[in-house]
Amino acid sequence: MSDHQRQQQRLEISRHAVRLFREQGVSATSGEQIASAAGVSERTLWRYFRSKESCVEPLLTRTVNAFKDALRSWPPDLELTEHLDVEYTLTPAPSRSDIEAVLAVVRLTRDEPALRAVWLVLHERAEPTFAEVLGERMGLPPDSLEVRIHAASMNTALRVATDDFAWAAAEGIGPEAMDRYRERLSSALRTVLRVPDRAPAHGTERAESGAVPPTHPHDRPRPPRPGA
Amino acid sequence: MSDHQRQQQRLEISRHAVRLFREQGVSATSGEQIASAAGVSERTLWRYFRSKESCVEPLLTRTVNAFKDALRSWPPDLELTEHLDVEYTLTPAPSRSDIEAVLAVVRLTRDEPALRAVWLVLHERAEPTFAEVLGERMGLPPDSLEVRIHAASMNTALRVATDDFAWAAAEGIGPEAMDRYRERLSSALRTVLRVPDRAPAHGTERAESGAVPPTHPHDRPRPPRPGA
DNA sequence: CAACTTTGTGGCAGGGACTGCCATAAATGA
DNA sequence: TCATTTATGGCAGTCCCTGCCACAAAGTTG
């Protein structure tokens, strides 16, 4: 079986899993349900995914992958943000419904610690790739501390911006939402990369800290008693 | 039962869990073992911890907490790195063996995805605190995108530096190792905060990308077949 | 085409993580 | 001292997930 076929299979399962998670919640969705919805036996489901929650991975990865692709095509003579403005559309590969599914999952991660974990792990896994590109740029080895830090920061900026976007676009995504997203992402990357801004300082893109607060009171060790 | 007592109990269990994880590996350690080692019933173990792996949390949190404390005592007239050099000793609260345990766990996270996940989640949970301090500093609301990004970057820098340290100090930690750690952490934070360096640029603290490479080939979807 | 090997899948059994429920003990307070 | 709350243990049960085996599909060699 080709690697590509396997990926497709995983993606297909992922779509079903996410649909069920959205409809019923994660804990109310059993592995058996996912398996039968995807038309495979439960046994093979566990061969494809190590855990119930990791079923969302193939879909979630798409946001990071889109960024990766954009990064790799980053020409040396351009600002990163400028390049992303034209390149990082996120619309090419994934369909509209896929995007909405991804964003829905991101929102789910707020209250589902296990999903949050796969989201974070998934992002971290992308860091070596970022480090490679940045290392190239900076003329430093990709495994040097400095490059790794920058890569991780970039990663983090991407994550925060995406989180933000997921909540801002909670009800439907129009082109203006996408624009807002790119704008926020650019802003985030700029603060990380500290590219000399043409505008004097801040004041335009931040200010109103609008949108839904994507903070995460989520996890906590979950002790029996919340109060005193 | 006081909150503090509960914390102590959790910490105590955590020590046992980590010891067992180090001795036998995570998967070979059962919840029952942890419970009986800690002298509680399995039932109450699950009341204290939502999962086997999260048992390491109370210990792991100490590194982040130490940083939090140092951050909070950051006087307005000092560079952060200078402040940390004297304040962030990490030795005050936790004992030597605790520190070693923490570092061992951090090393374990390389090959134990579940542990890696709690490590990442734990770090992310600290970001609001960082954001509060930074927001204060920057005169911006703690929930503004810019502040959150900076907080997250700081977080990430701390994580990468700690990871690095855990591997560099794999065999015993002397004072020189601690010094190296602080140095690396300072370096990491400097690249994130981009504080104007007194030295012309780089060239002193990075250069040799020494230490053990703390990259993480760890997770991967775990497909049955690695090759073709 | 036939025999053989390789690879993907399903079924079954089982272990272990985790939860709900109830009984009971310990702590708190009047 | 009694009543109430709170922490714990035991037990049963569910579900996630794995090891094993048997079988089918696909590729390889003669």
From TrEMBL, chains A, B:
Provide the residue span(s) of the region labelled Disordered: 194-228
Which lineage do the record's taxonomy fields give for this organism? Bacteria, Bacillati, Actinomycetota, Actinomycetes, Pseudonocardiales
Q: Which residues form the HTH tetR-type domain?
A: 7-67
Q: Which InterPro entries match?
A: Homeodomain-like_sf (IPR009057), HTH-type_TetR-like_transc_reg (IPR050109), HTH_TetR (IPR001647)
Among PROSITE patterns, the record links this protein to: HTH_TETR_2
Recorded protein name is TetR family transcriptional regulator
Question: Record's superkingdom?
Answer: Bacteria
- The organism encoding this protein is Pseudonocardia xinjiangensis
Keywords in alphabetical order, please: DNA-binding, Transcription, Transcription regulation
